[in-house]
Specification:
single chain, about 300 residues, alpha/beta, 5-stranded parallel sheet
Length: about 300
């Protein structure tokens, strides 16, 4: 079981090198990430976008492009379609967002002819390696589904469990988060968390352990669980998956951790036919590189399945 991004790097370097198709690759942090992942033997890359700008940025960061395939397409929307089609046609293993608006990037992912639809709903997962936690944390959904319904939450759990399995985490513990850890009919989030727990107990949600509602401290801090007398819960500060009630709670938590702790993290869109790397423009090249590592791990898992 991988407990850190270091473990994930070790895991993926033992596998066949993957190829990433980068949409609108004229972005310095993206190019730095691709170079770092390539130097570690994790990926090769096909760079799709404005070739002149790609070469200009590469020169500014002393990046040698002689070993990269570049497809010149200055138009963002066309670049996205060409880049995603490479993955659709199995000429690349994963798809990465560069300097393009998220809405146009996602439209290419969902394109009926060349996209990466599977028929399953999509969701977003962040994998966090925190120094205070002795295992990887999977946060979802912090960037894709604004107000998930009960059915959405079932799909989000299923999508994230598959990412956990790719990372070697079997039967992960899922904590549907709320402000409190008891069911309160006046707080619908707690009612849905309880329903998810019962669905899991009835075998309707498989390959994981669901215990909710849980407050953030009970889900992530064993000491807090002990102080609150929650030792009888299935999750006592050792959750693997943190399921947020809505995008606001998830996004605020994500940014609070990223900007105020020494976290190592990577992000993916899930439910697609191949790993889709969606990061923010403000994310560092380290986050983008970690996302490439995560994408390669998931690509290997999908190939083996």
């Amino acid at each position: 079981m991988s407990k850190s991004f270091g473990d994930l790097v070790e895991q993926v370097t033992k596998c066949e090198k993957k190829t990433v198709s980068v949409c609108c690759a004229q972005d310095d942090a993206v190019l730095e990430a691709v170079r770092a992942a390539k130097e570690k033997g994790i990926v090769d890359a096909i760079l799709v976008g404005d070739e002149a700008k790609i070469r200009e940025i590469a020169a500014s960061i002393n990046m040698d492009l002689s070993d990269y395939k570049i497809i010149n397409e200055p138009d963002d929307i066309q670049a996205a379609l060409k880049a995603v089609e490479l993955v659709h046609n199995n000429k690349a293993d994963m798809y990465m967002k560069g300097l393009i608006d998220t809405k146009h990037f996602l439209k290419s992912v969902l394109d009926k002819e060349v996209g990466l639809r599977t028929g399953k709903p999509l969701s977003h997962v962040c994998v966090f390696d925190l120094p205070e936690v002795d295992h990887l944390l999977f946060l979802t959904d912090v960037a894709f589904i604004p107000y998930p319904t009960l059915d959405d939450k079932v799909n989000i759990i299923n999508n994230t469990v598959e990412i956990c399995e790719a990372c070697g985490v079997k039967n992960p513990k899922v904590a549907p988060l709320a402000a409190v850890e008891v069911v309160n009919p006046k707080m619908p989030v707690t009612v849905e968390a309880d329903e998810l727990t019962k669905m899991n107990e009835a075998g309707e949600i498989k390959n994981c352990i669901v215990d909710g509602p849980l407050s953030f401290d009970l889900a992530t801090c064993p000491e807090a669980a002990k102080h609150k007398g929650a030792e009888g819960r299935k999750i006592v500060g050792d959750a693997d998956i943190l399921l947020f009630p809505d995008i606001h709670a998830g996004n605020i938590t994500y940014k609070a951790l990223v900007h105020n702790t020494k976290v190592v993290n990577g992000n993916l869109i899930t439910g697609t036919a191949a790993p889709v790397i969606l990061t923010s423009r403000s994310d560092t090249f380290e986050v983008k590189m970690n996302s490439l590592v995560l994408g390669a791990v998931v690509a290997e898992h999908m190939k083996n399945k």
